[in-house]
Amino acid sequence: MSLSARDLAGCLLDVGAVKLQPLDPFTWASGLKSPIYCDNRQLMGFPQVRDQIVEALVAQSSALEPTLIAGAATAGVPWAAMVADRLKLPLAYVRPTPKNHGMGRQVEGPLAKGHRAVLIEDLISTGMSSLRCAEALRAEGAEVPAVLALFSYGLPQAEAAFAVARIAIAVLSSFESLSQEAETRGIVDIAGSEALKNWRADTVAWSRAHGGA
């Protein structure tokens, strides 16, 4: 059975990978306040869900005709490894910045030059770390047609940045699907759902209004 965006949103809520607290926001590492916290690494502990996610990523990857699968470090790497194994393709992983010791590499694994590389992420927020990884692959001579992710907040700044970079985004589930599923389950009420939408429209203003950076 194929995994719909709402199905995955439900899984994220079921396993505690996503938590929603519009009235008691989380503080991100950047200092920004947010009504949502997402840790998709929790999904790796649930084999049935994990298999469905990998099948969906394999289907999306195959459609792009890659010759290399790359994982964005660190949380995208296990998903990329499972996809590369299913497709019998070379695997690389990419850091957002070069290593500050040893060979100083940013892309680890086979040389990316000449490859058509699909980059796999677990989560897209502002998109900056994903794009740094994609640009590292391009700098080595790879073509990067798309970034595939399990989930995206759908922030306007991320969509604009990907458009400028001319890289497509494909996601298995979205902020809209998550909000709808949370409201259906009664996890957030109408006011809470509105707070989530206001946050996504302007994350900085929302954060400042709630005592964050």
Fraction in helix: 40-55%
Helix segment tally: 8
Strand order of the largest sheet: 7-6-5-8-9-10
Oligomer: single chain
CATH structural architecture: 3-Layer(aba) Sandwich
CATH fold-level name: Rossmann fold
> Would you tell me the overall average pLDDT?
93
**Share of residues in strands:** 15-25%
Distance between the termini: 43 Å
Q: Characterize the overall form.
A: globular
Helix-and-strand structural type: alpha/beta
Quick one: how many beta strands? 10
Order of helices and strands: HEEEEHEHEEEHEHEHHH
Which residues form runs of ≥5 with pLDDT under 50? none
Largest sheet: 6 strands, mixed
Q: Quick one: CATH class?
A: Alpha Beta
Give the tally of structural domains: 1
Radius of gyration: 17 Å
In short:
By secondary structure, the protein is an alpha/beta fold. The chain has helices at residues 5-14, 47-63, 77-87, 128-139, 156-165, 175-185, 190-201, 203-209; strands at residues 18-20, 26-27, 33-34, 36-38, 68-72, 91-94, 107-108, 116-124, 143-152, 168-174.
